[in-house]
């Protein structure tokens, strides 16, 4: 098992969660992002046995491992994250679980994979960590590594669907990285990256949207 602390961490202008790694899964559970949420994400991804899958911003690898179960031994799933502590923890968890999921240090704006490599790319609560310019670069890179006809399943903050969320989130309109989400602009970013048939396929707590986009 590789120790990512000995690897060179990629540079990025996006947010990198490091010290949060040991507590990340517990924090997700506290805000309602338990395994049920991950299963809902995969339900919208429609993974099939044998598919090649990339999980960008994989964190501790919960979704990545579940995706590996979906594609089976004939498929392959790789999770990337710019945080060495997250990747180290993801590898340890996968090793304990006997999962075939693989994990690499990496940044979405500079993917280390060849063109047209993956059938599916997953992005779960990653895009809001990227500045505006980096969102564009990252989505263009995702488009590049997808096979023709491949698909992106992204879930992230969107225009709130309930007035109470607006009371909590209106200050985010002054934070450019998140403001695009609150204003409901993510489909525009997906279309600008070249994706077609961009459509919302689900909601979570009237705050998060699942988007499907095809190459």
TrEMBL record:
Q: Which GO terms describe its molecular function?
A: methyltransferase activity
Q: Which UniProt keywords apply?
A: Methyltransferase, Transferase
InterPro entries assigned: Methyltransf_25, Methyltransf_Superfamily, SAM-dependent_MTases_sf
Query: From which domain of life does this come?
Result: Bacteria
Q: Which residues form the signal peptide?
A: none
- SUPFAM superfamilies (alphabetical): S-adenosyl-L-methionine-dependent methyltransferases
Query: What region holds the Methyltransferase domain?
Result: 53-150
Q: What is this protein called?
A: Methyltransferase type 11
Tell me if Transferase is a UniProt keyword of this record: yes
Q: Which Pfam families match?
A: Methyltransf_25
Instruction: Tell me the GO BP annotations in alphabetical order.
Output: methylation
């Amino acid at each position: 098992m590789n120790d990512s602390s000995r690897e060179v961490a990629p540079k990025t202008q996006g947010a990198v969660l490091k010290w949060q790694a040991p507590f990340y899964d517990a924090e997700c559970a506290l805000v309602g992002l338990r395994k049920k949420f991950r299963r809902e994400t995969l339900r919208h991804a429609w993974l099939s046995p044998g598919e090649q899958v990339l999980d960008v911003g994989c964190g501790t690898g919960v979704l990545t491992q579940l995706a590996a179960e979906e594609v089976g031994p004939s498929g392959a799933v790789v999770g990337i994250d710019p945080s060495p502590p997250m990747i180290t923890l993801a590898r340890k968890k996968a090793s304990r679980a006997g999962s075939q999921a693989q994990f690499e240090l990496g940044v979405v704006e500079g993917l280390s994979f060849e063109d047209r490599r993956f059938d599916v790319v997953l992005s779960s609560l990653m895009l809001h960590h990227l500045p505006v310019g980096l969102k564009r670069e990252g989505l263009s890179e995702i488009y590049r590594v997808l096979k023709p006809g491949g698909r992106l399943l992204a879930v992230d903050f969107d225009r709130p669907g309930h007035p109470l969320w607006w009371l909590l989130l209106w200050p985010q309109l002054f934070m450019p990285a998140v403001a695009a989400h609150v204003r409901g602009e993510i489909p525009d970013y997906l279309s600008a990256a070249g994706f077609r048939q961009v459509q919302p396929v689900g909601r979570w707590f009237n705050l998060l949207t699942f988007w499907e986009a095809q190459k």
